[in-house]
Design a protein that fits this description.
- The chain is an all-alpha fold.
- The protein folds into three domains: about 45 residues, no CATH class; about 80 residues, no CATH class; about 45 residues.
- About 45% of the residues lie in helices and about 0% in strands.
- The chain has seven helices and no strands.
- The longest helix is centred in the middle third of the chain and has 16 residues.
- It starts with 7 loop residues before the first helix and ends in a 19-residue tail after the last helix.
């Protein structure tokens, strides 16, 4: 099962069918399914989230609000950040990871971090890290670095063919253009 590329929605549907917990990241669900199919019974506990009394959806948020390990993105938190960071504010993977990893800091600290990350984007040499779970985005970046004149349609064709193969890692390789029909 681990040799194939799976969409999270496919894994969730299969986990539901087999009665396996389907919450968490795509790779958490894949691990639970693969373990079950291998005949290994495990009790995987839900990730522990300590609620420190912050209702992120309804509470009035200030720059002094402490980030808890139960933080979740919500319309309320988005509106807070738009007020303090401007209408261009958007949640990014890097920023969401920072929020998750910085319980105990304040939303004021988060505003500073978001602005720092935005400044990084202006640096032409800056290339953000793509988390391992975002194989498609990593594939596209590598495809266009190697084939700058090619189209998104061609990249998608290569990706579609690549993900249909039983591989451990679905990464771009120069020979992938040979995988398309033309």
């Amino acid at each position: 099962m681990r040799k194939w590329y799976w969409l999270k929605s496919e894994l969730v549907a299969y986990a539901r069918q087999t009665g396996i917990r389907y919450g968490g990241s795509k790779f958490d669900i894949l691990d639970r399914l693969a373990t079950k199919l291998d005949g290994i019974e495990t009790n995987v506990p839900k990730s522990a989230k300590v609620d420190l009394g912050v209702n992120w959806k309804n509470r009035t948020l200030t720059v002094d609000t402490v980030i808890t390990n139960s933080y979740t993105n919500s319309k309320n938190s988005r509106n807070f950040f738009k007020v303090h960071c401007g209408q261009r504010f958007a949640f990014s993977i890097r920023f969401m990871d920072w929020m998750k990893d910085n319980a105990g800091k304040t939303l004021g600290d988060a505003i500073i971090e978001w602005k720092r990350l935005e400044k990084l984007k202006l640096d032409k040499t800056f290339e953000s890290a793509i988390p391992s779970g975002n194989q498609f985005n990593k594939y596209l970046r590598d495809f266009f670095a190697d084939n700058p004149g090619n189209s998104m349609e061609k990249a998608r064709q290569c990706w579609k063919r690549k993900r249909s193969l039983p591989l451990i890692r679905h990464v771009y390789e120069p020979g992938d253009l040979d995988l398309t029909d033309d």
